[in-house]
Each structure stands twice: as structure tokens, then as C-alpha cells.
Amino acid sequence: MTVRPESDSAAATRCWCCGGGFPESELVRLGEHPEMGVCLRCARWLRRRAVRQRDELRPSVTGMLRGGVHVVRKAVVRRGWHERGALGVFLRWLDRYLP
Questions:
Q1: Are residue 75 and residue 99 in the same domain, yes or no?
Q2: Both 53 and 65 in a single domain?
Q3: What domain of life is recorded for the organism (predicted)?
């Protein structure tokens, strides 16, 4: 019986995007590359980024609406509104339901 070194087991639960440590249940494994795990937060960010890139390649009305949401989201983050008391709580809640 062999014992895996501590560093290997810790590396297995690291997000490949942000580098944070997460339990296995909070990582999304990538199909043909199960060694790669991305945390749920980064997976959501990657999905948004992929949709934005697809919208740029194939413009549509819904893509323009999603682009508007992205511009507003960027402005909110730049101004730090998402970190302000009740307003921040509301904005973070709303963000979960926006594309």
C-alpha cells in the first residue's frame, strides 16, 4: 500500500483558474481532462466569458442585451457598489440570475 504525499492531495483540490482550495464536491471536472478542476465560481465566470465570445462571433438581439448587462456589471464592480451594505447584497443576489 502506498501513501500519496500531502502536496499531491492538496493539489488535487485546487481550482485551475483561481488557485483556491476547494472540496471535491465544489469542483467541476473537465470532460477529457479530469485532472483539471474548476471551482463553481470560476466555472460560472468561464461560461459568461464563452457566451460573450460567441455573441461577438454571431451577433444577435439577445447577444446585444447580454452585452448591455456585461457593461452594467463592469461599471458596478469598478465603482465597488457590489461591496456596499444592503445595496451590495441586492446586487450580488441579482447577479446570480443575470446572464
A1: yes
A2: no
A3: Bacteria
- Same domain as 14, residue 49: yes
Please, are residues 66 and 52 in contact by the beta-carbon 8 Å criterion?
Answer: yes
CA distances from 25 to 19, 41, 42, 43, 58 (A): 16, 13, 14, 13, 35
Bridge partners for 27 per DSSP: 39
Is the domain of 53 the same as that of 75? no
Q: Rounded distance, CA 72 to CA 91, Å?
A: 11
pLDDT in tens, the chain (99 residues): 555 555 545 445 899 999 999 999 999 998 899 889 999 999 999 999 999 999 999 999 999 999 999 999 999 999 999 999 999 999 999 988 888
Instruction: With CA atoms as reference, report the closest residue to 14 among 27, 31, 30.
Output: 27
The string over 11-27, giving b where at least 16 C-beta atoms fall within 10 Å of a residue's C-beta and e elsewhere, is eeeebeeeeeebeeeeb
Range of the domain at 81: 61-99
